[in-house]
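[Structure tokenization] protein backbone as discrete codes
[Encoding] learned vocabulary of local backbone shapes
[Protein] chain in single-letter code, fold in tokens
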Amino acid sequence: MKKRTILLLAAALSALMTGCSGSTNETSETTASETVSAASGEKLQYWCELTTTVSANYSNLGDTPFGKGLQEKTGVEIEFLHPPTGQLKEQFSLILADGNLPDLMEYHWISDYPGGPEKAIKDGVIIPLNDVFDQYCPNITKYLKENPEIDRMIKTDDGHYYVFPFIRGDAKLMNTIGLMVRKDWLDELNMEVPTTMDEWHDVLTAFKNEKGCTAPYSFEYTNGQFLGADPFVAAFETNRSFYLGSDKTIHFGAVEPGFKEYLTMMNQWYMEGLIDPDLATLKNDQVSAKITNGQAGASMGQSGSRMGTWTAAARGTTPEFTLVPAPVPTLEKGKTAEMGHIENPFSGRSSVAITTSCKDIERAAKLMDWAYGEEGHLYYNFGTEGTSYTMVDGYPTYTDEILKNPDGLPVSQAMSAYIRGNYNGPFVQDVRYLEQYYTLEEQSQAPIVWDACNGAAHTVPPITPTADESKEFSTIMNEINTYRDEMILKFIFGTESLENFDTYVKNIENMGLERALEIQNAALARYNAR
């Protein structure tokens, strides 16, 4: 077997083998037996982050029923390699510096590779997949032919395919993050689910004064995905970062007047004790504890791993505990929110590239392509028939192994043992997984409630600046984002007066914001011309 010297770094080796995060894709004709017939040779090394719903019970994806079954069904032996928790980008950089790469790498190549995917190709890190798709991948080729908008998304401006993508296969899968609030408390206080910022202020104040909350609104502030999806920012018709304006050009929301209004509100709420005082350092376990023990009454997150998990945990001691979704708020009662967090079908996350170190490209390609055929699609989303699901009138239905796990695992963890459908990876996600994952009526309502906005019109598509543009853009935005993030907390905590917001804007502009927007809009124009 190949030895990767980067993986022999003494301090990192054991951690590097502890986690992987994945996703699944859909539809086509290559069967597992055909993949098996092509399988031979040494193990393929597959590097990816281990999602928390896997790492709670397994140290390696290869130890899960999913990982074992994938190898059995395809006939391909896989050595899963995982960076230490929270060190994805750092370990990725170490691997690149060494130059001796795993065969397959699951990463966000658009946003997290300096220079973007085209630069990764030109740097000799990953290979273009056009010929690979043509020769070895009938399933993904068929899927892309049937879905031209997705096809446009997963290639560079130079026309290079570069990953086996994670695709959200239904609109209901594109809005899985939003606000949630304690409905049992609202009923007790004779209050309705808040829909405006004023109503939110009243609800959080009542939670503080009537329910004794020390952190009425608490959310995982250290989670960048949640920051980008913040519905309270959207209420002011802006964004923390880039968004598509009504003029169909890209804007940077953090310097706009609406963002100042948002910061003013957050500062007021913080001073009134309506926001978790530990905001800056909050992680999921802390938020979970505060929500389930009554220190907090509202939060933001996914309806599965947050709403569902918290409800199950809290009802052991508080049977009436109920979280319900709340819509993206507005400033005016009865108005539909213009902004809101809606994912692209392909965002770039958790997609797999074949590296230039791979010695058996055909076997690697056929392994990955299997997920996009019918058999692989069912496996990635539902697992093994007879164990994790059964077919009921043509509908893949999860068994009690998943929904009522005999070992007492939460549904999210039971799923992650057998499938990748409930987290990202190289496959097409099936909405039928979500229909069963949401075991509570409140969860089933979440996609409907959170989708009641015009957010999709403002989502920037997966554009890819040129290699030179990406390098320049990264240099500019690293400085801007660091400064923005520092100043946001200062404004919220009141250590920096909002009278200095104009100075903050000017400083960001002086860091090269205009050039960053030029690069983004040039990339958008090329994307639209694909």
